Amino acid sequence: MAQAFVALSAWQVMLAGLLFFGGIYLLFGAATWLLTQRILPALGIGRPLDPRPLAPGQLRREFTQSGVSILLFGTGMIFPWGLLQLGWAHLDPDASWQKITLEILALVAWNDVHFWINHRLLHTRLLRRFHLPHHRSVVTTPFSTYSFHPIEALMLGNVIMPPMVVHDFSFWSLASVPLFSLFFNCIGHANYDFFPNVSYSHWFAASRRHHLHHACYNGNFGFQFTFMDRLFRTRLKAEAATPQLEAFRQRESLGGRA
Prior knowledge:
Blueprint: H1 2-7, H2 10-43, E1 47-48, H3 58-75, H4 78-86, H5 97-122, H6 128-135, H7 150-156, H8 161-164, H9 171-188, E2 192-193, H10 206-216, H11 227-232, H12 242-257
Antiparallel strand pairs: 1-2
């Protein structure tokens, strides 16, 4: 597979990238939506996090912005391919499954570091205007995952390039990054608490933490794990969104009485 990827033409790489990113976005997004809107509630498993309704036209906007991100991610495959063509990076075609496993674990950790750094930068005064389109989804959906400004998409989309120039990865290790990244991202944006009984700091409470980031705007800049937010003291308290949600419930209660 490594040799086949390197042998592709530039146009073939970009077309394959578009099909890949578009396909996994629709597959993971639709599966998570079905799971959280139909299957899990019917089984009595988990609970929604934010009871407020979606903004008018939100899903249409998310699909439109996600389409631009998919275009950038897909055509952007030309850059890691270009590193290989120039000889600045190499793939290991003979990596053992043990090496691939270790590489994937390292990339999972790197993904969290890379995401925190870029996400924190996007909340600075200089760059926040490029992050605001994503935060228009206060109540998130799985389709919020790729709903970015193009600048944000470019910042987050270069995650595999720095590791490629310092280590010869297996093709399968690098290919796993968009898969686990999108999977965790869909979970984080699902507005659903899959494991209500675990603690707020648990790995399985990532959807709770990212829900608070969208509800409160600042804090909880990490991806799946908490180590970067703990290190830089940007972790929100578990009850950070309580005032907003209580205010909504009170308005709903008063509206029902009227």
